[in-house]
Batch of 2 targets.
Target 1
Amino acid sequence: MQARILSHHGRQAWVIDQQGQHHLCVYKGRDQEPMTNDWVEIDQTSSPAVILRQLPRKNTLLRSEAHRSKALAANIDQALIVISGDPLFSDELLARMICACVAEGISGLIVVNKMDLAQPTERARQQLASFTGCLKQLNWAVLEVAAKPKTPGFIQNENPDLVHALTEKTTVVLGQSGMGKSSLLNWLVPEFNAQTQEISTALQTGRHTTTASRMVRAHEGWLIDTPGFQLFGLHHLSETQLALGFPEWAAAQEARGRCRFANCHHLNEPGCSVKQAADAGEIAARRLSLWQNLLRAS
Ligand SMILES: Nc1nc2c(ncn2[C@@H]2O[C@H](COP(=O)(O)OP(=O)(O)O)[C@@H](O)[C@H]2O)c(=O)[nH]1
Ligand SMILES: [Mg+2]
Ligand SMILES: [Zn+2]
């Protein structure tokens, strides 16, 4: 029968079948690389249950350093990226997360957490302003929330827009450490701890060791919690794929005409339309420097 992987550890996977039954399965072949939210064919009659084969993936979200890549999840509808003003999010990491998603055809939304903290939130808004053109082109929304407010007198509201965005979708939640990803998941999914505890127990992993992503039921859809990170490598992406995460470049060339060189990297080439658009203030200068750093790093 068919099932989807809620989480995995080593050669084991915790899966849910179409009747809602859970099974602890083992991978037979060494050639299979499990990913959270893979659809698989299982033989639940053997003991332990066995994963026979993995079904084709619609997309795969990865991050990758020079020599190894980390599979975050497969078959994703959208990404929810958590940022905050305290500590101030890294705009470089945000640009990288956007690239990883867009290259795989994954849409997204940005959640600015800790809105109870007025000044940090204003700083976050200012830093996010350079992404306005990008997010508009991509049609990504930005929502402000306080998942776990600390400010006395601040009243946490329900967030119907956020709940609406998640309903019936499979959403991967991404965030650099400290932005409040765990707090957000606990706020959105009251049974989040119970569900992840069940996964940890089944796979015999420590409750707080999240080396693999874990998927929980939420709002008639699914939320996938990913391990926090301080680096988000994109070695698996080509320059053309990275450019999809900077849609301003294509728009600038449409408006101003193409760059003089067909293979312009928008680094420092003469006749670069993107550079001219940045100089004219039509695209954010910070975005161009993020792009240049990204190209130099990969
Ligand atoms: N003021 C404030 N603090 C928050 C909010 N959400 C989370 N925090 C705090 O931010 C810190 C990091 O939160 P956590 O959920 O562990 O972040 P994670 O590393 O992204 O999982 C913790 O001290 C939280 O209490 C919020 O909405 N407002
Ligand atoms: Mg956390
Ligand atoms: Zn150029």
Target 2
Amino acid sequence: MVKPFIPQLVYVEPGALDYPLGKELVTKFEDMGVEVRETTSHNQIRNLPGDTDFQRYRIAKSTLVIGVRKTLKFDTSKPSAEYAIPFVTGCMGHCHYCYLQTTMGSKPYIRTYVNLDDIFEAAENYMKERAPDPTRFEASCTSDVVGVDHLTHTLKKAIEFFGQTEYGKLRFVTKFAHVDHLLDAKHNGRTRFRFSMNDDYIIKTFEPGTSRQNERIEAAGKVAEAGYPLGFIIAPIYLHDGWKQGYKEMFEKLESELSNTAKKDLTFEMIQHRFTKPAKRVIEKNYPMTKLELDESKRKWKWGRYGIGKYVYTDEEQEDIKDTLGSYISTFFPQAKIEYFT
Ligand code: SF4
């Protein structure tokens, strides 16, 4: 079982101490005996302990920076939402294929923002622009926000903020099962709580540092009982020997563990495994022993964002994935909605 995250080292940016949450977090970590260092800006965090890049990468992933979010212009977040809402960046998990390895580059530490009211105000303005159409905000574009929330309760505040809005909806996805503090949040049905789910072999082989499959399923059950609309992102869908059986067992377990309440309003998103050449280089550097299949010659090349091509499964394999997983979903969860396959 993966224990709830506790940072080995905390940095605090001076501006963060002007906010009650900033002060509260510093006191909390000092009381826990975690070393707290001051920094003028997160960009100044250069001398993390460790002799090699490999060691520094690992230490950075257990370092937390308490900071202030300056950019209040939100990125778009297709296909799952209109906007990405920034609460945290970085993650303590060690998934070999994590997209943050390329997007966060040299700053793999976790950074949590304490100026929540500014972020909520910006969200309010985005909602006004689109009203009366609903506006969906995705909170996990730059982190696994649940992984750190038992310490900060930022997400809990966000859930309650969106709970009382007329047009706002919040969504996020997690690979962590530490959800107990979120169960009594006044969500008002306006937050879709999603779990990233995969077959057991894939989680065990490629997702160290995250909650195991059975823990995620158990947490999903609790969340649904607390009345949250529930969803699963099956990602990355990865082909390996026995994948059809692995995914079948996953759906069987989900079906037997979830109550009828959970099944009533359930969504699935499906994302196939893909990689880019730069991502492959970073993965091989950070996880040199990985068993991840990254052979370009076995994949189909596809234009990606920013002109960087990505390698996806061949058309035939994609059809096989859609048919196989689609049939499992319609067998085990006939009422569920498949939002997209990409
Ligand atoms: S849990 Fe998500 S954000 Fe964290 S390392 Fe794994 S893939 Fe990346």
